Amino acid sequence: MNKADHINRKDLRALLMQHVFEAEANGDFSAEFRDAFLTEYLPAGDESGYFNEVWEALTTHMQEIDTLIQEASRGWKINRIGKVDLAVLRISIAEFIYTGLSEKISINEAVELAKKYSDERSGRFVNGILGTVYRGWSKDKDGQPEEETAGETEEPAAEEAEDGRTE
């Protein structure tokens, strides 16, 4: 993504996903790495508040977020989840658990990102994982399960199962 005159929330979320993907690939979730990325890709004078808020939530709570993903993935090892899907999952969970963004908005945007940057099956996979995480989190938070807001977790296709399933 190149610098533009202004960037909207949807594009900023995609930029954040690209940065989380890059940080995972480089093993560098430092503030310096984030700042260098923002300097290169965020338009001069554009507000990076959303980006920084989600980034801080994600990096501060990465272990908890990854545990939630692992528990919801029903047999998938987290290191076998596609890196785009993992970035999208991490961002969405950081958004609705740690920044207070509506889970409906966050999950919908995550599914769209997964479809755009990965494939159609990734959209369903991401939706299922996030729905499971949200239902578990909302039950723990309130003591009562929330009304379902996302799809059910779908089992991976056979060819995916051979590649990503644990025994």
Structure description:
By secondary structure, the chain is mainly alpha-helical. The protein has one domain: NusB-like (N-utilizing Substance Protein B Homolog, Chain A, Orthogonal Bundle), CATH 1.10.940.10. Helix 1 crosses helix 5 and helix 5 runs parallel beside helix 7. The longest helix is centred in the C-terminal third of the chain and has 23 residues. The radius of gyration is 16 Å and the shape is globular. The C terminus is likely disordered.
Count of DSSP E strands?
Answer: 0
For the record, what CATH class applies? Mainly Alpha
What would the average pLDDT be, to the nearest integer? 82
Overall geometry comes to globular
The CATH architecture term is: Orthogonal Bundle
What fraction of the residues are assigned to beta strands by DSSP? under 5%
Tell me about the largest β-sheet. Answer: none
Provide the helix percentage: 55-70%
Supply Rg: 16 Å
CATH superfamily: NusB-like
- Listing every helix as H and every strand as E from the N terminus to the C terminus, the arrangement reads HHHHHHHH
Q: What is the count of DSSP helices, taking H or I runs of 4+ residues?
A: 8
Measured between the Cα atoms of the first and last residue, the distance is 39 Å
Tell me the number of structural domains.
1
- The CATH topology is N-utilizing Substance Protein B Homolog, Chain A
Going by helix content, strand content and strand pairing, the class is: mainly alpha
Contiguous runs where pLDDT drops below 50 for at least 5 residues: 144-167
